[in-house]
Design a protein that fits this description.
Strand content: 5-15%
Strand order of the largest sheet: 2-1-3-4-5-8
Distance between the termini: 20 Å
Helix content: 25-40%
Number of strands: 8
Length: 372
Amino acid sequence: MTEKIPTKFLLLCFPLLAIFFPCNVYCWSTYGSQIKGMFVFGSSLVDNGNNNFLLTLAKANYSPYGVDFPGGPSGRFTNGMNVIDLLGEELQLPSLIPVFYDPSTKGGRTIVHGVNYASGGSGILNDTGSIAGNVVSLNEQIRNFDEVTLPELKTHVDCRSTDLLHNYLFVVGSGGNDYSFNYFLTQANANVSVEAFTDNLINSLSQQLKKLYSLGGRKFVLMSVNPLGCNPVARASQPTGQDGCIQVLNQAAHLFNSRLRLTVDFIRPQMPGSTLVFVNSYKIITDIIGDPVSNGFNDTRKACCQVLSVNEGGNGILCKRGGRVCAERNIHVFFDGLHPTEAVNIQIAKKAFGSYNRDEVYPINVRQLAKL
């Protein structure tokens, strides 16, 4: 990617002035309306491979994951690209976003277009995902950004600008695991209503967003929770409703998403100069499930890869190592027991970027956000 350097910055780079005004290409590149990169926080839906470097059961660094990804298995929980990769393509970023825990993700040139901190199995709450082992909570992800990446970026950029991060997207995709692997899994929440639990999640997430804002974030993309009751592992675990999905799970997801959408309006006055965009992947996926043929899909129920049940030695979610995989992956909604295929991710990313349907993306789309 090439850009025309503004004249005033060229002047600063003349040899006679350089000793007084240190010039760095990445300092001037943070100006303008074009998005320079993304900092990504969340769970497996947006994890580019952080869990490869952690002691956890939640891994996707083996075949058949990545069967359609350049280079094969990468730690992405799908057959090809995830939403982050595809959103980066829409934004014309020059490279895929590197993961924080990869030892090679060090220094300014590596991180100048952003860093991915997401961890499969994690949640908004610190104790979510402990069943999977060592996963990185949203709070810890934010600390990694604050204490490690941000000082490195500031050192490399060598620029005292207060708007260093204004042309980066801060993408947050978390919350689903807080229901699936916390609220609906443990007895600790037996006396807590789903409404009270959701309020706690939204309040916690609001504080986390404010923390990112205090660190310099101004452009936020908030991903909804997907329809938890429609994935293969959910369908296999409980009696189904009339539409084949588990309604109690979908109702919880819908409640969270409704509150998150309201938060976009509520929190903005508390974060002056910020813009928050809510991407309703719940609606996008349920629209596909409700009318698959019109959306280019056929199988809305089964996992594309071979998934072993608990009785078979698996967990009902992840693909079997070296297991079978369906041939027509582009017509399947789900790749494994929980995560969507690249074909679904493409639809989510395209609608996040360019849809003008406020039920899909609110209040503006990512293309409009990028131009602010």
